[in-house]
Fold this protein.
Amino acid sequence: MVDQHPNTVLSAVCDTSSEKLADEQNFNVVRDPVEVLASDVDAVFVCTPNHLIPELTIQCLERGKHVFSEKPPGRTLNDIVQMQAAEKENPDIKLMFGFNHRYHPGVLRAKSIVDSGRLGKIIALRGLYGKSGGKNFPKSWRNDFNISGGGILLDQGIHMLDLFNYFIGGFTSVKSFLSNGHWGFDVEDNAVVILKNDKDQLAVLHSSTTFWKHMFQLNVILEKGYLKLEGLLSKTGSYGRETLVIGHRQFEDEAEAIGNPTEETIYFDKDLSWDLEVNQFIDCILNDKPVLESNSTDAYNAMELVHRCYQDSDFAIYQSETN
Amino acid sequence: MERAVIHSDLKKQEIQPQPLLEKYLDLMKEDISKILPARSLLDASCPVTGESEVQESFSKLGMDYQVSQTLGNIYLSQRPSMNLLKQFYVESSARKFWLKELWPQTAEVRKEKILLPQLGWAWGFISQYSAEKNLCMAEFLPNHWGYRLAADEIFPNVNYRLIDPLFDTAGTERLVTDLDVSDKIGNESLNAAFLFEALDRSPNPAGLLESVKQSLKPGGLCFVTCLLASGFEVQILGEKSGIFVPPERMNLLSYEGMNMLIKKTGGLEVLEFSTPGVLDIPNVISKLDSVKNSAFFNYLFSLRQDARLVKSFQDFLQLNCLGTFGRLVLRKK
């Protein structure tokens, strides 16, 4: 995507296992991030395991390099606070986070329908987001608390929490139940989260590594209807075809109000989420615009929800001061 | 690109009650013989490719449709000149009947099940793609559909204009009267343009789409609804299909024909191409007796006695753009 943008060139890739990268490339391959930090690149994409994100991001910001950081924004709430402090000290440098689900076509359409007010106000959100485990899953760094800082809720559930914030936000009550009963990692393999804000809007999330099938589903329940997002366009197609179901409430005085209303299902064929978010990042740099979406405030808000879920749970590993 | 599958309880009888429809068709047939005599009609060619070679021809109400060789577009040929077409719309008793009888008796259900959902569909896209506060929209060739009458419920405080380059003749009866002519629309002035079955009715769909493109701002949206020659009902019933009537339906482009028209126009990105209609199967069932080799369809839709099968067949048609009612969203690059 960086190479495809007319105003950017991919200059270097840093990977500690750089032998994985082919020799014949149009960019430099380096093993030590210091080489990137010392170079004259304008912007850096930080796509590392979680424990490396804060330090790399802060060092880039301090050296005047714009940063697009993958989610989650570190391992703890303190990590994003530190990154925000570095951002504040370098106000001309852009910092954006990879909450790309906001840019998926189904989410964009759902948001526009909600914002149009046609279906009234949101009453509740319900999300399911999970994966099947997969090859070598038990050995993944994502399940190592010292590297990841959390389990499936921090790894994948944070996308759904970001969408909850995107659609309603302002959650004042947080309840969570975590389990590591299946895999026995020191981090959770399942999380059930219940949220409520001061407008009486509810949100429920089940984030899981044990659905045995990649699954994404978000229900938006409104006063005059409902939206059901299902599937996510991806390279492998493993989350299923991305669809948005739009249903209109049958009112109580309608003769055929039998709980099976007319539905419209939209099938999306093209995922532009990566292009949209990267293009937005580059546009903010080139035109010195503030980062309005997926910015550090959004990252903080999502991370704060994860933090409060972990605090509310009875998982001992999340009860220390630093978490 | 995206496509929509809609489960609607819309029934043909609700919008076209059989006695009224039969009266309308009788009047239309009389109008055609009276106002559009064969000697006054002109040859036409495929509205997309310009070719004259045809796969086949058929007649409806005394006028001839051709099926183009390459793309399977259906078009009226011979057809009236522009002046004669205007005269037809002024004098047509069928049109008066539609406006005075058929519309008033079906207006409520049309508004609830057709007009408001379609305007709501458009509003979803406009909300997503346009950040402007003061939106300017225009409906081209509004004819007698009445979207304007429902638009205020969906687009409050929007400048919604009606553009009719064809029927500016004084004395034409219509549901709405506050019409502009096309030359009052400035280039790159519109956030959204609506072509509700307008390409079907235009003598020059390529020219109409080009002028709409010119009138859109960069990033502006064009919403198209149309009947498709490649749709199930038209493919199965052909000339027996009651969904299109001359001279109003001058062109029914196929799925491929519509894509070719957009490609030839250039500068337009297709955001959605769907065929979300729900009347293909009921319309085919109602005329199965007139279909050759209908045994299999009779088995599917009747003898099998399985409503789920019929529903899944309609879903299949919609999901694969094989329905007769088409809708598109185009975005000016």
